[in-house]
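Sequence and fold
=================
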Amino acid sequence: MNKQIKQPIMNKQIFIGGTGRSGTTIMSKFLSSHRDITKLPTETRFLIDSYGMIDLYTSLTNNYSIDKSDISIRNIKKLLEEYLTSPRTSPYIYQDFYKFFGEDFYKKQVDEFLSNIILGEFIGYDFQTKFRNYKTKLFFGKYINKTFSLFEKISNKKIKRFNPLTYGNSPETKYIGKYFENETELEKLIADFTNNLFMQYAKSKNKGNWCEDTPANIAHIPFLAKIFPDAYFIHMVRNPLGVAYSMGNMPWAPTNYSDSVDYLSNVYDRIIRVKESKDFNKIKFLEVRLEDFSNDFNHTIPKLNDFLEIPNDYDGSVEIKSSKVDYYKDLMDKSDFDFLNEKLSKYIEYFGYK
């Protein structure tokens, strides 16, 4: 009897997002236990962070100007070539794209991408950011150049003029960015660059699909869906009280509940706005409550598999414990519980926790 060969599922693009502290990591780890899916080794960030692809996209399309294109290209170069390849320096500590994707492969992909968005470069001055003591230089420059003119008349020799705008400043490389009147052209460039990197990592794990779990993905679904129109988006939801409590231990989040309420309210409002946006129903989107994921595993996983259109083929290495989800209920003071319950009631009810 011939053993049935399992056909691999190929090139599914999965984005996971949430508020932070809502289960994005455990979901990506669980999906990575599937025989054909791998999670990226870290939150890659370059698509939606400041200086990232989302800023580059707007600067080279609808908000194009020479200045904006120059600045956005310098920013994306610094992000891709320095920040994401220097794991021991901020602001992206532990990010080592040379290690994740292979140094030669990564450099080649970056060079090819940049060559498609940069039309030219030249050495010049950035007057908007490099002026120092401008008024003083302008004042003295006026009289210095008058003196130069007098010497020219006496000596009959041409003397280079003093430029108050550049004196004491260093010239730098400035870029002429391409204007993408056809936005889909740039969308394809970003998609190909990203997918080439992510698939390179997936193949290194002998898998054909990837998932990326930067929490802020959820707030930028409209942009990500432009770049990856066939992508799957999973929104990990957790009881807002649990999120607020857990965030208090994080260095990137507020340390008091009053600020946490402001922080979360804005994040939740943005998520709700995204879900109400035009054409959202065309996006492949699934909302998964962390509590259901841990307490009602046997019901939640088939639903997840159906959404992603994948077989139930996980290796069982990832265990989801409800004790790690609901622990805050035993640790939170009643006064804090009541405060958060009141201030976040809109979102508690919206996500079905009331």
User: Anything to note?
Assistant: Residues 132-168 form one domain.
